[in-house]
Amino acid sequence: MTNSIKQLKWPDYLILAIVIVFFGYIWITIEGTLNYKWRWHLIPNYIVGWHTGREEYFANLLLQGLGATFRISIYASILALILGTLLGVARCSSNLTIRMLARTYLEFLRNIPPVVVVFIFFFFLSQQLIDALNLERWARGIARQENNEIWVFFFGEMRRFPSLISGVIVLALFESAFVGEIIRAGIQSIPKGQREAARSIGMNGLQELRYIVLPQALKKVVPPLANQFITLIKDSAIISLISVQELTFKTVELVASSRMIFEAWITTAAFYFIVCFSLSRVFARLERNSQNN
Amino acid sequence: MNQQTPIIEVANIDKFYGNFHALKDVDLTVRQGEKVVICGPSGSGKSTLIRCFNGLEWHNSGRIVIDEIEVHQNAKRIRELRQEVGMVFQQFNLFPHLTVLENLTIGPMKVRKIAQAQAEETARGYLDRVHIPEQADKYPAQLSGGQQQRVAIARSLCMEPRIMLFDEPTSALDPEMINEVLDVMVELAETGMTMVVVTHEMGFARKVADTMVFMEEGRIVEVSPPNKFFTDPDSDRCRLFLNQILEH
């Protein structure tokens, strides 16, 4: 960092000065006309609140939302990885029908706006599935139990469990298309000779895939998959539209009740940024380390 | 030894890649224990021919019978056949994510369903035979080209095949490593293994071959024993080819 500061020459300072003046000007103009009363001091209370009755801190709206975003992102990634691997393998299948089906699924998902995809999956798939499995009643049963801390830790408020599940399913189906393309690229990057060597010692197609191709392909696709995980965290904001109680949804709630439009959204943006940026730094470092070894 | 029963019988096979006629009416018989060396200019169909022997390529017409099994697009039968026919590739094609020992045991364990301990014992035996027992726990990328190719030979041998196919096994090697691989192949030949070798290593061919085959433009042009092949071949094309590669 200090090195890059030393490298700055006078034109760099000029550019920086122009940028600062430009945004400063916009800021002053808005401040003048907007007549907005900033109430930043109230925001921390919506992250961690103080419960006066029980005399303890509790996670308030924004932190609850962030927790839900984490849970949903992690579960959706796992599901997307499984679906995506199947899809990627199907895309490389020697069977034309399987290839065509995988391709159709993929092209649909890639050429329809995410929001529309989310609504279609939600109304046509997730809701029916949740009804069919009777998840609603099962979750309420658990919510009524006394010792449900473990359930709450993993799945949040159990009364909201069905909505969490639909969020995870919708997000995973949506992301599986992209994971599938990454896996396909990984599989196709394995040299033909590897498959020939596997076949020449008598392996069948499944063994070839399981012992030779996939272990190598999955290793190669870790960096792009890590990036896709970050994208998934950002995309998870979309499922607030189907009332999944994650960070964006909670922010909408907070804004509706407190009217702190700017403070709430800026805080939420900061949350997403901190999470996604630090993950991308961590992944970049892990990748560098594994290359050095 | 050479007069025993045929183990590979190739009759009138043709092979096309689109419009390109890669193999033209090829006939060849290999007897049990016989060492056949196939040579010829590049693009003459040598590799294609031996890749047809274990179903890595499919012939379009004609018949290939190996050890009384016809090479056929029946998935189960071709897998059984591949266990009897080992193949060594120009580019080694070792599995880079597995150690040397795992490269050797994965076939016997997953395909032949042999227990790990036994597979490892066999594998170490073959690593001994290719003179690199100390490399068992390394990964392929840590070995030299010559060592990798010897591991590849050992990997094929671990499946206990009855026939070994070699597809230009020394062409991708640095010159100083060629001999260590050829030495292993000579030792293997001395055990009585049936071998079909595509190579330009004429020194090896003279030492080991029972039969020399010369191919050009998808046809077998000459089949003769080495002493005749190297001194007085029937075809002019073969003579020209030999002059070209033996000049230096």
Explain this structure to me?
In chain A, helix 4 packs antiparallel against helix 5 (96-110), helix 9 (161-188) packs across helix 11 and helix 9 (161-188) packs antiparallel against helix 12 (222-235). By secondary structure, chain A is an all-alpha fold. Chain A contains 14 helices and two strands, in the order αααββααααααααααα. Chain A has one domain (69-292): Orthogonal Bundle (MetI-like fold). Chain B has 248 residues and is α/β, with parallel strands linked by helices. Chain B is 39% helix and 25% strand.
Give short descriptive properties of this protein.
heterodimer, A: 293 residues, mainly alpha, MetI-like fold, two-stranded antiparallel sheet, 14 helices, globular, B: 248 residues, alpha/beta, six-stranded mixed sheet, four-stranded antiparallel sheet, 9 helices, 10 strands, 39% helix, 25% strand
